[in-house]
Amino acid sequence: MSNQMMQTNLIKNKKVLLHACCAICSGYPISLLKDMGYLVSVYFYNPNIYPIDEYNRRLDAEKTLCDYSDVNLVVGNYETDAFYRCAEGLEQEPEKGKRCVKCFELRLRKTAEFAKESGYEYFTTSIVISPHKNFQMISEIGERIAKEYGLTYLSIDFKKKDGFLKTNKLSKELGLYRQNYCGCEFSIVKKEEA
Description:
Mean pLDDT: 92
Largest sheet: 5 strands, parallel
Oligomer: single chain
Order of helices and strands: HEHEHEHHEHEHH
Shape: globular
């Protein structure tokens, strides 16, 4: 038996909770995780997204993707106050700065909490598929939080093997909504200033 087949057999029927930042980014990760033998559920927890209409467009796209992919979608609460508390004092930070780190921590911690409460052993995030996000930094956050909850963070660089191209291709085929900023109101301001 090949090494890859043995690995796949070891993870067969293991549940993984994939935090999804948006449908565009989560298409390929869902597919890859399923191909690896995981039972995938998607957790949409993004209190950073502003305004509510934008949040709803992204959530509707995620629902379409999850229906297409035949995976369970769990929608976390839209707790904008939680995001603003974590971003307090960091509003003027540049994109990829300290505010973004706090936002990643907030969303990954909430994912880990839900994973622990719901019997998942593994969790990961689709955020890392973006070429604009720091895979190593996000993985370190995920691994640190996983230890706190007695879970395993799957540190998979979904960009590899043309993952970003594959996820974009799938989103175009499905006609999914495509946003033009990261999500929070501060990223809109930074985008408009650029």
